[in-house]
Design brief:
The chain has a five-stranded antiparallel sheet. By secondary structure, it is α+β, with helices and mostly antiparallel strands. It is elongated and about 95 Å long. Strand 1 and strand 2 form a beta hairpin. The longest helix is centred in the C-terminal third of the chain and has 31 residues.
């Protein structure tokens, strides 16, 4: 847990410095988003991996460094989300799904005012209509609005529509036959939007931090239960580390008794 905490802290410091070099936090939200997209579009000197498949795609330091990853929708969106979050923007990932529930494209949603505006980091654009109004996923479900928005984006693939979407694709889990999404929707409607799943699922260091904290709390609980069972039920004398440490400290730091 300590190692995971240090790792996540170092990643956040790295991202804070990176985002500060790209965009000041004092700018309005739209300008901060546009500054990040401009940096992605400008393509400064970046590394090229001999085998991109071996890169750690959930490590922000990797996704921001390699050119190949910034040209793939999933990792480009991850890079945008990490920089936007470090610039004090509320963002989340949005998966566009095909009829068979497979991911066909990945975009981001940015909270501007009280609306979750669609940003496509792969094409480096904020989705707008002909009048320049920001568009949400609900707006883009209208075929006419969608066609109008993408007509201004060169080489945009028309199959990237918004009829089916998700923030978490449970079909990737080996438990699809349990109908987890239907069950979760019934127990807690809106569960996939209530939690920042993109940070948990797409930042490796944060995922390991959460897992290590949960494991630590679990094993501490197990230790308390076993200690109670040993004391109250089995009547087994235990080694009390705290008491022995206090006695050792007292013996080490107290003045020795001098006998006459």
């Amino acid at each position: 847990m300590i190692y995971s905490s240090v790792r996540e802290y170092s990643v956040r410091r790295y991202l804070d410095g990176f985002s500060d070099a790209i965009v000041p936090n004092s700018l309005p939200q739209e300008q901060r988003v546009q500054a990040i997209l401009d940096w992605m579009r400008a393509e400064p000197s970046r590394a090229n991996a001999a085998d991109p498949d071996e890169l750690r795609t959930r490590d922000p330091e990797i996704t921001l460094t390699y050119k190949q990853l910034l040209n793939v929708c999933g990792t480009a969106t991850n890079a945008f989300l990490n920089l936007a979050r470090s610039s004090d923007l509320r963002v989340r990932r949005l998966l566009l799904l095909s009829p068979d529930r497979q991911t066909k494209h990945v975009v981001a949603e940015v909270l501007m005012g009280d609306r979750w505006v669609i940003v496509d980091p792969t094409y480096r654009v904020i989705m707008k209509d002909a009048q320049g109004h920001f568009l949400t996923r609900k707006d883009l479900q209208n075929p006419a609005v969608f066609s109008q928005a993408v007509s201004a984006i060169p080489n945009y693939r028309p199959e990237y529509t918004y009829e089916r979407f998700a923030h978490v694709r449970l079909a990737r889990l080996p438990l699809e036959e349990l109908h987890l999404r239907r069950l979760l929707d019934r127990i807690y409607p809106g569960w996939d939007e209530a939690v920042d799943w993109s940070l948990l699922l797409e930042r490796e260091s944060f995922f390991y931090l959460v897992i290590s904290v949960m494991a630590t709390l679990f094993f501490l609980l197990v230790r308390v239960v076993l200690a109670w069972f040993a004391d109250k039920r089995l009547r087994i004398p235990r080694f009390h580390l705290r008491q022995h440490a206090l006695r050792a400290g007292a013996a080490l730091f107290s003045a020795p008794e001098i006998k006459q």
